[in-house]
Design brief:
globular, about 350 residues, about 5% strand, mainly alpha
Length: about 350
């Protein structure tokens, strides 16, 4: 059945949200880390180089790619599109999980060896000294581990937030044991708990939305029909969810002095010289949270727009392939879900 222009427009809109947001994040790094002029500076006439115009054109190109993607998969239902976009959200969350896991263990180990003056035993004296410099540790330890996390997340399809919760408990338990039994405590030990704890709550938000795990405090919603629920969720995404995420990204990454960019550029660390050097990464958690939520909100929008366009979903959750979460399935042609009959 040919895809109507209205359905195509709705799908392009939802997909453009993901592509344009991705371009914004990429351009942010190209501008402030790669030395590119930036789309805004180019449009204001401050810098009219080819790289600047390439950044400007990346946004309409993102919309064009969204349109091409929709046309290539014109036979797919809204449910299939929702599941596909949810896969992208799941991957971004998996990368974030493996990133904080690997960096947390490695940075805590480096900090422990430094505070105990054991680092020169395992590496050259100069490298051991350089590990006390935020930029050196960030560029030579954190960045490679981030790339490794992306590769591991590509192969490992499960989401490990249960394990991250356990690791937070174990890290806190170690502080209790070492403090009250061995009278030993260092700054990096508390830093590790805060690092994992912040990641758990910010990264698990998109995953919780992925599995419909958020608690709804309402009186009327549970009694709505499937279509009314779809209207509520669609309007909520457009008026509340997406604007909140974009506000975080735009205000936090607008220029070098913004609340997210500034700590990332300076690789800001805590005042404790022998603590973990991950404070700037924790600031970046806000950007990861907003970005992953944008992707999942786009999936959520596809799912509920599908209901409004005649696809009704069942109460039987389907195991979402490759990401360890469940996604509601759709049955095209049904006017009401089984709970409304």
């Amino acid at each position: 059945m040919p895809l109507s222009s209205f359905d195509a427009s709705l799908r392009v809109l939802a997909l453009s949200v993901v592509y344009v947001t991705t371009m914004f994040v990429i351009n942010n790094f190209l501008t402030f880390w790669g030395g590119w002029p930036g789309a805004l500076a180019t449009m204001q006439g401050v810098d009219t180089s080819k790289l600047g115009w390439l950044q400007v054109m990346s946004y309409p190109i993102a919309v064009l790619l969204a349109w091409m993607h929709v046309q290539q998969r014109a036979d797919d239902s809204y449910a299939q599109w929702a599941e596909r976009i949810a896969d992208w959200a799941a991957y971004s969350i998996r990368v974030a999980f493996w990133m904080v896991l690997l960096i947390g263990i490695a940075d805590a180990l480096i900090s422990f060896l430094r505070v105990e003056s054991m680092l020169p035993v395992f590496m050259p004296e100069q490298m051991a000294s350089d590990m006390g410099k935020p930029h050196y540790r960030g560029n030579n330890l954190h960045v490679p581990l981030m790339l490794l996390a992306a590769l591991v997340a590509w192969r490992a399809k499960g989401l490990g937030f249960t394990w991250l919760t356990l690791l937070v408990v174990v890290a806190e338990f170690m502080i209790v044991i070492t403090r009250f039994i061995f009278s030993y405590e260092q700054a990096f030990m508390g830093d590790l708990v805060r690092f994992w704890y912040a990641a758990l709550f910010l990264f698990a938000s998109a995953h919780t939305l992925l599995v419909e795990g958020h608690i709804r405090v309402d009186v009327a919603y549970t009694h709505f029909s499937a279509r009314n629920k779809a209207w509520v969720n669609s309007v909520g995404v457009l008026l509340l969810g997406l604007p909140l995420c974009w506000t975080i990204l735009i205000l936090g990454m607008w220029d070098k002095t913004s609340s997210i960019n500034s700590p990332l550029l300076s690789m800001e660390v805590s005042q404790s010289g022998y603590g973990m050097y991950v404070k700037y990464i924790m600031v970046g958690f806000l950007a990861i949270f907003a970005y992953s939520m944008v992707i999942q909100f786009a999936s959520y929008l596809m799912k509920h727009v599908g209901v409004l366009r005649g696809e009704s979903f069942t109460d039987e959750p389907q195991k979402h392939k490759g990401s360890g979460h469940r996604l509601t399935t759709f049955e095209p042609g049904l006017e009401r879900s089984s709970t409304d009959s």
